[in-house]
Design brief:
single chain, 313 residues, three-stranded mixed β-sheet, 3 strands
């Protein structure tokens, strides 16, 4: 069916989180606070894991990259959303829309596989503690983050290019608060089956493969913990996995709610609410979870605070 005349686009119009004028100001304040906490928490985690000598282990190497990724995809979406709350017309330039889509896809896929790498790291630490530093060498750690980054960049570019070399129809209204692939597909005049196939195939592969690594790692971890004779050893093992497991449950729970729901109940409105959660709330929660549940991070924060107090005296 013909969707409309092809047009040369300079801008898209984002419908935003809500179309109610009375909610614009409260939402702006709320999301500004959330985004600010996300930036401070993740940048702080990157700095903390870089400068503290006791956090120079593979676990905190991956945590530093997780914080960088959280900062990346919240920043890809957050500032533009905040601008749209205070402008009369929620527009985004064509090139900026493509850039936002590319960065968002890159960071969200990277997050899935870095979380998988962190699960494997916890498996090695608990199941092979004597060989941990040998197995999780610096070379291995960099490989486990470099491969997800390269793979995510490839998928990000191919998806973004496939969408933006296609012809858009007269409508420029994106039913979302940022440039996401599915709302953009509804604006295309040309056939979208090939792009939809790419998105569906790789989304399923990314979710299933990354979650499988996490599940297999934690099954093996659970078996190893149950074989431990010491209650103190079991508690310590559980405590080292608690933060990561909490982050995994929150992120995958949100993604499965968004993508694995009946087609009849699927709507862009539910997508928006889920997207708000995983683009802004989860990046804010992750550093909080790791700070509250991790004694080493809390200890590093105390040491940094004491040093700052000494310098100020």
């Amino acid at each position: 069916m013909e969707k409309g005349n092809v047009t040369v686009l300079k801008d898209f119009i984002l419908l935003g989180v809500t179309d109610r004028p009375d909610l614009q100001a409260p939402f702006f304040v709320l999301f500004l606070i959330i985004y600010t906490m996300s930036v401070l928490g993740n940048v702080g985690m990157v700095i903390l894991t870089k400068v503290d000598s006791r956090l120079q282990t593979p676990m905190y190497f991956f945590l530093r990259h997780l914080a960088l990724i959280d900062f990346g995809y919240s920043t890809a979406v957050g500032p533009q959303m905040l601008v749209n709350f205070v402008t009369k017309q929620n527009t985004i330039p064509y090139n900026l829309c493509a850039t936002q889509l590319a960065f968002f896809i890159f960071f969200i896929i990277s997050e899935l596989f870095v979380l998988s790498a962190m699960a494997y790291d916890r498996y090695v630490a608990i199941c092979n503690p004597l060989l941990y530093m040998v197995i999780m060498s610096q070379k291995v750690c960099w490989t486990l983050v470099a491969i997800p980054y390269l793979y995510s960049a490839f998928l990000s570019l191919i998806t973004t290019i496939k969408i933006f070399i296609s012809s858009f129809c007269g409508s420029t209204v994106i039913s979302h608060f940022y440039c996401d692939s599915l709302p953009l597909l509804t604006l295309l005049c040309s056939s979208t089956w090939d792009v939809e196939l790419i998105i569906l195939t790789f989304s399923a592969f990314n979710l299933v493969s990354s979650l499988s690594i996490v599940l297999v790692s934690y099954v093996l971890i659970l078996v190893a913990i149950l074989r431990m004779n010491s209650a103190e050893g079991r508690n310590k093992a559980f405590s080292t996995c608690g933060s990561h497991l909490t982050v995994v449950v929150v992120l995958y729970g949100t993604l499965f709610f968004m993508y694995v729901q009946p087609k009849s109940s699927h709507s862009f409105e539910t997508d928006k609410m889920a997207s708000v959660f995983y683009t802004l709330v989860i990046p804010m929660l992750n550093p909080i979870i790791y700070s509250l549940r991790n004694q080493e991070v809390k200890g590093a924060l105390h040491r940094v605070w004491r040093n700052l107090c000494k310098l100020s005296i």
